[in-house]
């Protein structure tokens, strides 16, 4: 994650509730993703920011309620690199909605309404290549992958690799992505690469490309 914007009606949440919501979003998004190495999640955490907004004007398309006790609406916008968006959207929407439900439960309201009613809208938006700036320069999604995975790659030797002939593709087994530490199931036909007679599996094409670039392995175009 890069940026999470949470929009709530003015005065719907106290200062403490806003702080708790923001921290819970970061903690839950990072701890529930147990598929990646801890070093990668820690690096992602340092790049994640949550802003809670209270717009001065909020107009709903449906007929407005005059009951001040009505529970608040939520709009959450999660910004990620565009190549990551499709893969992340399902889990991100589920996790964010769960955090909002917990916020409602803690306030003594019905937590399930955010799943039952259209009161919580989650938008997962992708930033196009060249649209992210870190360290004073524009970075690509590949640069970002390198940034968040470098500590894991430097500290961890290649693991769970299995010798394989390039001409044959195993149909069973699990490998650990050497870039991000994610467990990869070969039965799901993930991206793979043979390097020095060893088969490596990757969770995403970006991890494969990053590994190939680091080891000077040409990729077919």
How would you describe the overall organization of this protein?
With 221 residues, the protein is an alpha+beta fold. The protein folds into two domains: 3-134, Macrophage Migration Inhibitory Factor; 158-221, no CATH class. It has six helices and eleven strands. It has helices at 15-31, 38-47, 82-106, 113-116, 141-155, 205-215; strands at residues 3-7, 49-53, 74-81, 120-127, 132-134, 137-139, 162-163, 174-176, 183-185, 192-195, 198-201. The strands form four sheets. Strands 2-1-3-4 form a four-stranded mixed sheet. Helix 1 crosses helix 3 (82-106). It is elongated and about 65 Å long. Residues 159-171 have low confidence and may be disordered.
Strand content: 15-25%
Strands of the largest sheet, in order across it?
2-1-3-4
CATH level 3 topology of the largest domain: Macrophage Migration Inhibitory Factor
Number of domains: 2
**Architecture of the largest domain, CATH level 2?**
2-Layer Sandwich
Outline, from the CA principal axes? elongated
Q: Name the CATH superfamily classification of the largest domain.
A: Macrophage Migration Inhibitory Factor
pLDDT below 50 for ≥5 consecutive residues: which ranges?
159-171
Task: Offer a few descriptive terms.
single chain, 221 residues, alpha+beta, Macrophage Migration Inhibitory Factor, 2 domains, four-stranded mixed sheet, three-stranded antiparallel sheet, 11 strands, 22% strand
């Amino acid at each position: 994650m890069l940026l999470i914007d949470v929009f709530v009606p003015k005065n719907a949440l106290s200062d403490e509730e806003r702080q708790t919501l923001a921290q819970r979003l970061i903690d839950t998004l990072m701890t529930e993703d147990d598929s990646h190495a801890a070093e990668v999640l820690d690096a992602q955490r340092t790049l994640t920011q949550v802003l809670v907004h209270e717009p001065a004007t909020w107009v709903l398309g449906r007929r407005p309620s005059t009951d001040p006790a009505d529970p608040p609406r939520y709009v959450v916008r999660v910004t990620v690199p565009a190549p990551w968006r499709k893969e992340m959207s399902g889990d991100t929407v589920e996790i964010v909605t769960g955090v909002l439900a917990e916020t409602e439960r803690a306030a003594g309201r019905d937590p399930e309404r955010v799943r039952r009613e259209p009161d919580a809208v989650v938008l997962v938006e992708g930033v196009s290549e060249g649209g992210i700036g870190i360290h004073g320069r524009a970075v690509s999604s590949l640069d970002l992958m390198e940034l968040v995975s470098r500590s894991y790659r430097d500290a961890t030797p290649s693991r769970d690799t299995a010798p394989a002939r390039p001409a044959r593709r195993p149909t069973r087994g699990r490998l650990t992505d050497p870039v991000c530490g994610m467990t990869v199931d070969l039965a799901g036909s993930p991206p793979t690469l043979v390097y020095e007679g060893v088969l490596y599996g990757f969770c995403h094409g970006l991890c494969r490309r990053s590994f190939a670039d680091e080891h000077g392995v040409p990729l077919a175009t």
